[in-house]
Request: fold
Amino acid sequence: MSRSIPSLTVCDHDVSVTTTPTDRRAERVFDSLADAVGDTPLVRLRAVSARDDVQIWAKLEYLNPGGSSKDRAAAAMILDAERRGLLRPGGTIVEGTSGNTGIALAQFGAARGYRTVVVAPDKTSEEKLAILRAHGAEVVIAPSGVPADHPDYVRNQARRIADSIDGGWLTGQYDNPANPAAHEATTGPEIWRQTAGTVTHLVAGIGTGGTITGTGRFLKAQGAVTVIGAEPEGSNYSLPRSAEPHAEGEHAWYIEAVGHFRHPRSPVDDWPDSYDAGVIDAIEVIPDATALATLHHVARHEGLLVGGSSGTALAAAARVAETAAPGAVIVAVLPDSGRAYLSKYFSPDWLARWGFDDLTAKPTGVPLPRIPTLSVSLTVGEAIHRWPDGYDSALVTLRTGPRTVAAEVAGSVRRSALNDADPNDPIERHVRRALVAGRRESLDVARSRLASIGPEPEDLVALSDRGFVDTVVKWRDFTHHADSHPQLEHREDRRR
Reply:
């Protein structure tokens, strides 16, 4: 039997409203910014799935005051810290975050008189960094390609800064129980109420795990709701906890604020305490190209401008709809807006740079059998020992495997540059800066951008197609043909 959410009657004329003081929540009138969080709308989507016997609904979390679902956790964590005496008047809020939690903390911090310091990875969008600074937050940029035990790792820097400040409080969203508790107390009940108890599937991205854990826990307690996690291809929530850091399928990805990245040199893999894997029934692994294609699709056909993690969740919801029973009611949580990513996911230049300008084709992921590819974790001696004869340059990457993610290219190194080096030196000390261009990126744009790095003729340029390296050329060849080829896809494959 088909299930549906009771329809709402909307009148567009001759509307008169009578209220009483107790209607303030319904009227969205609040005494504080923290009170305004939540009660985000649920919107029916009709262009995500071809099935008309299955409903997909979007929970528009980007309509929270700070523009994301992180408002819920941030408000809850601040209020909890105040009650427990961990955050006192004049104190400083410190957190390591890819942006949205930091924005939420900064806005509430500004409203409540706190100083806020945010440590953000270097891949955070410029829009989110600008919003943080607009709220008065102090922003520290951390490298995203370092292992968890490195002193410059995002969370390590945040912890060190909090410890160094008198009155500093480390939010610790990854392990703070107030994070999932906020969603169990608000997001879950809202979805249950908005669907009149008919929801059959919850789909949400897994980042810190707070949203899906708290929301899923509440919904499962109400009835037979299936909870589906969504993560980018390369994240490891869907892999066994015992998997080694170099497990097949683990690599960097391009979508912000979702997934769990494990650096190949991280000694341990600590999943967040905010994430309860027992709540999750299944996980859908979504390639970046699919997430990006989905968010562009809903912008043009649903009128929703959403971020990358929302594209990941919606792509997962579309998959769930393919096999769901007739009458299924699928709710996808959309964490943030695409306005925070106009310089990335909606920028033709950014898409072309990483090879995502053609989102209709599958990534080639072509192996590079004739180009030495070395792990950045090697010593000079190990690199020389593994260097194939007949080649004078090698691509150096975060990890090696059948496919090389363009974002994991550390740079290139010449064999002759290692002749006088200490065999025990890390090879990364001798690596030239990374040169990456999109397969179909404008040559004028790519050449201008890469020339500013100061490359030498023998440095290698990795060409990216849908995020993966599929061709490597030397800088001298790259520039030699630049005037005769308007786009990189017309270039001959230099591996032949």
In short: Residues 201 and 330 are 5 Å apart (CA to CA). The radius of gyration is 24 Å. The longest helix spans residues 308-323.
